[in-house]
Amino acid sequence: MESRASMAPTPGALPYYVAFSQLLGLTVVAMTGAWLGLYRGGIAWESALQFNVHPLCMVIGLVFLQGDALLVYRVFRNEAKRTTKVLHGLLHVFAFIIALVGLVAVFDYHRKNGYADLYSLHSWCGILVFVLYFVQWLVGFSFFLFPGASFSLRSRYRPQHVFFGATIFLLSVGTALLGLKEVLLFKLGTKYSTFEPEGVLANILGLLLAGFGVVVLYVLTRAEWKRPPQAEEQALSMDFKTLTEGDSPGSQ
Question: How many C-beta atoms lie closer than 10 Å to residue 43's C-beta?
Answer without folding.
Answer: 19
